[in-house]
């Protein structure tokens, strides 16, 4: 028995040495490419002592120095290459290295399982250290990819502003992810901030989780936050376990600028001082809530009466009658004012009762969701609080709000929703490529046979035929309704499109 255990231990140690050698090779490759291409060729990108954390740097410092000396000789002919090409090449090689690292990581996982069985605690610590270093390499790869993307986007402007922005963005990402050199005392406060506390990579208390495929947990935050450093610092500058600042507008501005999702905070949300219990369903559907149910500090209007009076103003205001539940809002999807107006009844009849759950994108005050709930269909409504408490209003009516910008990926799994509806929001004010991504995301969450109801889409008259019809029809949906009509409210040559489309049950892709 003793010899068998000894043989198993020797075999495990040999596998560890093989895995360590493989990891060592890839670290050398990564370090040499990073130091040579990035630091000696890309003078307009930010520089730092190392892309790795202290432990990894100390372990392989000598080997990296040797690799640098060799690589400098090989790269003498590459000084004239454009920065973007060099960075792109670096990112490509990093991706290849990362794939190899993942394979090596799986070998380490297998070894770790064997070591756990044989209770070799010292070897466990060694394998854990190797796995942690691999995690740091992956973080470094992602940061460099982000820097590459920022560099390409900024490259369209002047090279000087591009270099400055890239340096600022990469510096922020480095501080944020906690991989900057600890010797840099100027960022010591940042490392201990709430932002760092939230984004820190943390080990799972029970160790490696096979279902998650990792032994760490990462908190999500939008990549656009790196471009909004000042506002993000304000947002995260609060008293821990105290009352959150009155910063609804700041939070919404961050979301609209791509900082989505926002980081979580450890403070208590403000409560209206005289909150009133909501009306019961179904009375709540068509009853305006009490003013005391809302925190009004973020809005120009301080009451629902003020919001309802906006419809009397001649200046254009998006959804200026959405809070008037006794006016036009109550008639929507019930009456046909124009040929563009489809009723909920006629759309539901297309599916013979199989429409049960869905989404309304940019649904204002959620009257569409209320009308659908009256027919036994559950609709989630996305809405922002653009000069009005839309999300609170939706919830007080008794339906579900989702505080989400139109640019955010829909938080639903593939092929799950029966219907997706959008009125006015999906239109030509959205950049063309962004709109295409949105349409494909809608297709992703719709189940086969699901309904996409594009309600009052509008664009320039000349754009519809040449640009938007090919984009929408190119999704390959069955057309149940398709109506166009001139849009007359702004005095410009615009046109409306209302369409009811059905996702195919089978898609033939060449």
Automatic annotation (TrEMBL):
Annotated TM spans: 21-40
Keywords for this protein: Coiled coil, Membrane, Methyltransferase, Signal-anchor, Transferase, Transmembrane, Transmembrane helix
GO molecular function: methyltransferase activity
Pfam families found in the cross-reference section: Methyltransf_29
Any Gene Ontology biological process: methylation
Similarity field: Belongs to the methyltransferase superfamily.
Cellular compartments per GO CC: endomembrane system; membrane
SUPFAM superfamilies: S-adenosyl-L-methionine-dependent methyltransferases
Membrane topology: Single-pass membrane protein; Single-pass type II membrane protein
InterPro entries in the cross-refs: Prob_Methyltransferase, Put_SAM_MeTrfase, SAM-dependent_MTases_sf
The organism of origin for this protein: Adiantum capillus-veneris (Maidenhair fern)
Protein name (Swiss-Prot/TrEMBL): Methyltransferase type 11 domain-containing protein
């Amino acid at each position: 028995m003793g010899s068998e255990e000894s043989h198993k231990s020797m075999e495990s140690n040999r596998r560890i040495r093989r895995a360590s050698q493989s990891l060592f090779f890839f670290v050398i490759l990564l370090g040499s490419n990073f130091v040579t291409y990035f630091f000696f060729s890309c003078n307009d990108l930010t520089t730092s002592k190392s892309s790795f954390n202290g432990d990894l740097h100390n372990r392989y410092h000598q080997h990296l120095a040797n690799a640098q000396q060799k690589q400098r000789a090989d790269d003498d002919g590459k000084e004239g290459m454009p920065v973007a090409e060099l960075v792109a090449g670096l990112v490509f090689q990093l991706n290849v290295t990362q794939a190899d690292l993942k394979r090596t990581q799986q070998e380490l996982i297998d070894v770790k399982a064997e070591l756990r069985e044989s209770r070799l605690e010292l070897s466990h610590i060694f394998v854990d250290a190797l796995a942690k270093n691999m995690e740091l390499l992956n973080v470094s790869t992602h940061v460099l990819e982000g820097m590459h993307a920022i560099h390409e986007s900024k490259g369209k402007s002047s090279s000087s502003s591009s270099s400055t922005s890239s340096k600022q963005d990469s510096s922020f990402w480095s501080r944020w992810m906690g991989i900057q050199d600890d010797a840099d005392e100027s960022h010591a406060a940042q490392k201990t901030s709430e932002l760092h506390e939230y984004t820190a990579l943390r080990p799972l208390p029970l160790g490696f989780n096979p279902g998650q495929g990792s032994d760490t947990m990462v908190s999500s935050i939008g990549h656009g936050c790196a471009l909004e450093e000042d506002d993000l610092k304000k947002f995260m500058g609060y008293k821990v376990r105290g009352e959150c600042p009155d910063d609804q507008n700041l939070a919404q501005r961050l979301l609209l600028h791509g900082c989505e999702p926002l980081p979580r905070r450890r403070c208590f949300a403000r409560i209206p001082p005289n909150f009133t219990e909501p009306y019961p369903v179904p009375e709540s559907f068509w009853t305006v809530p009490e003013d005391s149910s809302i925190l009004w500090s973020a809005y120009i209007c301080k009451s629902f009466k003020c919001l309802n009076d906006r419809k009397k103003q001649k200046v254009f205001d998006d959804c200026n009658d959405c809070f008037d539940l006794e006016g036009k809002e109550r008639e929507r999807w019930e009456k046909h004012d124009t040929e563009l107006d489809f009723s909920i009844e006629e759309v539901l009849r297309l599916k013979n009762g199989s429409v049960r759950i869905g989404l309304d994108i940019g649904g204002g005050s959620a009257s569409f969701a209320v009308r659908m709930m009256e027919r036994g269909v559950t609709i989630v409504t996305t809405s922002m609080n653009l000069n009005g408490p839309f999300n609170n209003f939706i919830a007080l009516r008794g339906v579900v709000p989702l505080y989400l910008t139109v640019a955010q990926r829909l938080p639903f799994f593939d092929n799950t929703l029966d219907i997706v509806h959008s009125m006015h929001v999906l239109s030509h004010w959205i950049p063309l490529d962004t709109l295409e991504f949105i349409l494909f995301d809608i297709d992703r969450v719709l189940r086969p046979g699901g309904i996409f109801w594009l309600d009052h889409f509008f664009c320039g008259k000349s754009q519809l035929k040449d640009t938007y019809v090919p984009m929408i029809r190119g999704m390959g949906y069955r057309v149940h309704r398709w109506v166009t009509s001139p849009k007359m409210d702004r005095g410009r040559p615009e046109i409306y499109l209302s369409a009811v489309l059905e996702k195919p049950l089978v898609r033939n892709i060449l």
